[in-house]
Design brief:
Chain A is α/β, with parallel strands linked by helices. Chain A is built from twelve helices and eight strands. In chain A, α11 links the parallel β7 and β8. Chain B has 477 residues and is of the alpha/beta class. The complex binds iron/sulfur cluster.
């Protein structure tokens, strides 16, 4: 199948590994990936901070960039939720594409590590991803999936919330990091690099805490050292 | 600006929240209380097979009310008057307070007993009565605690949620006439309050209440409660004054059933609330002989005009959204500067007052948009959607506005975007050397990113952007 990738602005600039992993994984599964270069940002950040007009321009730009593609995948739950609410694009979060569209639950990955999974608010409530990501992770060879305490609690990121309400955001982050550390996992995985940047920034200050990783990177891994 | 409205924040939310966060006891009390009640709610909601269709029906009924507000109010008034009630219309808080004060004066009452009511808190009725020389006495246990402490409520349903029992015993000993108990067992404390309140009820000539629902078809008012003190207020005094927000209407008596199932499970996690009182007009020789109903607008008809924001008026004040809100759990109710705290407060207060009132414009930003509130709301208010709507229609800082348009301009053109990515990468190259020591993140960033690094490390632009990787690996051959 020919699948168009929406990599998102944040992944493009800061976390290309998530996009690279998505491409690697889909190509390994025998699919062709297209990357329409006219894409940049879905407009979520602008819309949620209160700027409807620039958001709308970016939404239209994204629609134009992906016109004609039947299946669009993105490694970001919150951006997919935004695209679904504000454009007519057939956008899927990676686990939705794999499980619902391609019908795969074992992607043939190997990742011999202890991993805990944070479901993220948009994955949990806007997209209702349910146990799709966990199902995919459980099929990974060598991976031990450890439950995260209070998984459905927001990490406190919320885009500009982290700056505008820094104190409350910091308190929420502290609780999320404590829960992540309590698992004893080596990695904390999630389906959104925005949440991961926030949680990872907190975990970086706790010696011995899990390291943040996008779950696409785990699914793309074949256990060979990179 | 009418500062004295208790729905106007006088401190920006971030400042008030940071202050409350410093209170470790408050955080512990709140965390324990909200966790208990949200677990209980989740359990009893899961028992109801048709919960989702019931939410849809309730939302539709409330929207029907907002679509036909004027007509339903007229129908309610006609039915209530026919049953012997007197109906008043109050445009705003001052107007409503003046009407109630005048009615109390006419009875020459020095005090009134009160049933817990959000509408009377919203208009600051207690303060208005005190200014007129009338003593209001709250009869809801938690409301009484807050009143004795000269404090303000911090939760819609559990106004004293921020107190623990030893703090309450200490307060009763100081402020409650005739209090002697030495234990802080909840039953002992409740017993002491009951004795104090009973003496008060028997002496009261006037009671003031609100209403959970007002039924247009029959002119009835409905009050649900769990202690039974409200029922004493509704039956013993000669005069009863009800202050009712116009959005409390239900078109038909038959609509009540769904709401009486949705409300207790959502609010207290009970299958049914212990006391439901439905009263219509007056009955000679039985109960209050004078019933005055003050229909309160105070911004509501204005809000009902907003196609997105109006859904906030569906709210039945169950407080489920407070109990699941991670921001409320940390910041506490006082941070919102309004009698309506939490997610519903963040959308209701700025709409009722207008966003320019005090610091109410900071409230729509008091959320990560995590969506937990929308999931639990029994009348399906899409609170995150309304928060974003208020952010988009409200006042914004000029610098931020400029930054957002510039960013959008850069992102709208692939050449500009590629240049920006490369500039960010080379600009941050020296930082990458420092960051390498902590696994690639930055511990202390310059302004404006310093706000981020106050609480967490910052990521750096990647050494190679995704689009450059793609070009190198997929287009160069
Ligand atoms: S907004 Fe919904 S959940 Fe919150 S208090 Fe109102 S009815 Fe309850």
């Amino acid at each position: 199948m020919r699948i168009a990738l929406f990599v998102t602005c944040l992944n493009d600039a800061l976390f290309p590994q998530a996009g690279i992993a998505t491409v690697t994984l889909l190509e390994r599964l025998g699919h062709t990936v297209a990357f329409p270069a006219a894409q940049s940002c879905c407009g979520q950040m602008h819309a949620n901070t209160g700027y409807a007009a620039p958001a709308r321009q970016l939404e239209r730009l994204t629609e134009a960039a992906f016109a004609g593609h039947d299946v669009i995948v993105s490694p970001s739950g919150s951006c997919v939720a935004h695209l679904r609410a504000h454009t007519g694009l057939p956008a899927y979060e990676l686990s939705e594409l794999l499980v619902d569209v391609l019908g795969v639950t074992d992607v043939g990955a190997t990742f011999p590590h202890r991993v805990t999974y944070h479901p993220t608010c948009h994955g949990l409530r806007a997209l209702r991803l349910g146990d799709r990501p966990a199902t995919l992770l459980r099929a990974v060879k060598g991976l031990e999936l450890i439950d995260l305490p209070e998984p459905e609690q927001c990490c406190g990121f919320g885009g500009t919330f982290a700056l505008k309400n820094a104190a409350v955001s910091g308190a929420m982050l502290a609780d999320k990091c404590a829960n992540a550390a309590a698992t004893g996992a080596e990695y904390l995985a999630a389906a959104d690099n925005s949440c991961l940047a926030h949680i990872g920034g907190g975990l970086a200050r706790r010696p011995g805490a899990p390291r943040p990783i996008h779950y696409a990177e785990i699914l793309a891994s074949t256990g060979a050292p990179s | 600006m009418s500062r004295d409205l208790p729905i106007v924040a006088i401190t920006p939310f971030p400042v008030a929240a940071a202050h409350e966060l410093g209170d470790a006891q408050l955080r512990a009390n709140l965390g324990r209380a909200t966790r208990t009640i949200r677990d209980k709610r989740a359990r009893v909601v899961a028992e109801v097979a048709d919960w989702e269709p019931m939410r849809d029906r309730a939302a539709a009924v409330k929207d029907e009310v907002l679509d036909n507000l004027a007509e339903l109010l007229a129908r309610f008034e006609a039915a209530a008057v026919a049953a012997g009630a007197t109906v008043h219309h109050a445009t705003d808080a001052a107007h409503a307070n003046a009407i109630v004060t005048e009615l109390v004066r006419a009875q020459r009452a020095e005090s009134v007993v009160k049933i817990k009511s959000m509408a009377t808190q919203e208009i600051g009725l207690n303060e208005a009565l005190e200014a007129a020389g009338v003593t209001p006495i709250e009869t809801d246990l938690a409301e009484l605690i807050v009143q004795l402490a000269d404090d303000t409520p911090s939760h819609i349903l559990v106004p004293a949620i921020h107190y623990n029992r030893s703090q309450i015993r200490e307060l009763f000993a100081r402020r409650m006439p005739g209090f002697t108990a030495t234990s802080d067992e909840p039953a002992v404390l409740a017993g002491a309050a009951r004795e104090y309140l009973r003496r008060t009820f028997l002496a009261a000539k006037v009671a003031v209440c609100g209403a959970n629902f007002a039924i247009a078809e029959t002119g009835s008012l409905v009050i649900v409660e769990s202690e039974g003190n409200g029922r004493m207020c509704l039956t013993l005094p000669e005069t009863l004054i009800a202050v009712v927000g116009v959005e409390k209407l239900l078109p038909r008596f038959a609509d009540l059933g769904d709401f009486l199932r949705l409300l207790p499970r959502s609010s207290t996690g009970e299958r049914m609330n212990p006391y439901t009182s439905i009263f219509t007009g007056v009955t000679p020789g039985d109960g209050p002989q004078r019933l005055h109903i003050v229909l309160l607008d105070n911004g509501r008809t204005q809000v009902a005009q907003d196609p997105v924001g109006r859904a906030a008026l569906r709210c039945i004040r169950c407080s489920a959204c407070l109990n699941v809100c991670p921001v409320y759990e940390r910041a506490g109710g006082h941070a919102y500067g309004s009698v309506y705290p939490g997610p519903i407060g963040a959308i209701l207060s700025p709409q009722l007052t207008g966003q320019d009132a005090g610091f109410n414009k900071t409230l729509p930003y008091a959320s990560t948009l995590c969506g937990a509130c929308y999931d639990v709301c029994p009348v399906k208010i899409n609170i995150p959607e309304i928060l974003v709507h208020l952010r988009q229609t409200g006042p914004k800082p000029a610098a931020e506005r400029a930054a957002m348009s510039t960013l959008s301009w850069v992102m709208r053109d692939r050449r500009r975007w590629r240049i920006a990515l490369r500039a960010a990468r080379s600009g941050s190259a020296p930082l990458r050397l420092i960051a390498r020591r902590h696994g690639g993140t930055l511990r202390r960033a310059p302004w404006p990113l310093s706000a981020w690094t106050a609480h967490r490390d910052a990521p750096l632009p990647a050494a190679e952007s995704f689009r450059d990787w793609w070009r190198r690996t997929h287009e160069s051959s």
